[in-house]
């Protein structure tokens, strides 16, 4: 995975710099997410691997499926096709979103809990995480009934395990030390 990230990073940075200069971060975000989703389609994968197609033909067919992209977004896709980097689109989109979130001082947080969070719990958690990370937090919650209780919070590279199972594991580790 590190190799894909290394290859995709310059493209993501270039797309981000252009989008920021054009004041179109949201438009580029949508375009890259769309392109990433299209590139993961099995039939599109076969198209991208077809050795009989030129890079221009690959890009044109790909863009026909993607829909309405701006001229600069189309040029970006053509550049990826020319450099045989279309398979990097999901990683480019992911890195672009990270750069966008950093520039906008936002943070996407995923909460996995044993039971659904109430509106009040979600608001308190959002406020606490906003203070902790000094960013605007966008909270996404999901329920995992296999958890005994508590929650797992994923915020970027940070994982906070507040589950009963996690706390019991920490207690057992402390007792065995």
Automatic annotation (TrEMBL):
Belongs to the ATPase delta chain family. This is ATP synthase subunit delta. The lineage of its organism: Bacteria, Pseudomonadati, Pseudomonadota, Gammaproteobacteria, Cellvibrionales. It comes from the Bacteria. HAMAP family: ATP_synth_delta_bact. This protein is part of the stalk that links CF(0) to CF(1). It either transmits conformational changes from CF(0) to CF(1) or is implicated in proton conduction. F(1)F(0) ATP synthase produces ATP from ADP in the presence of a proton or sodium gradient. F-type ATPases consist of two structural domains, F(1) containing the extramembraneous catalytic core and F(0) containing the membrane proton channel, linked together by a central stalk and a peripheral stalk. During catalysis, ATP synthesis in the catalytic domain of F(1) is coupled via a rotary mechanism of the central stalk subunits to proton translocation. Keywords: ATP synthesis, Cell membrane, CF(1), Hydrogen ion transport, Ion transport, Membrane, Transport. GO terms for molecular function: proton-transporting ATP synthase activity, rotational mechanism. The gene is atpH. SUPFAM superfamilies: N-terminal domain of the delta subunit of the F1F0-ATP synthase. GO terms for cellular component: plasma membrane; proton-transporting ATP synthase complex. It is a peripheral membrane protein. It is found in: Cell membrane; Membrane. It comes from Microbulbifer pacificus. InterPro entries: ATP_synth_OSCP/delta_N_sf, ATPase_OSCP/d_CS, ATPase_OSCP/dsu. Its main location: membrane.
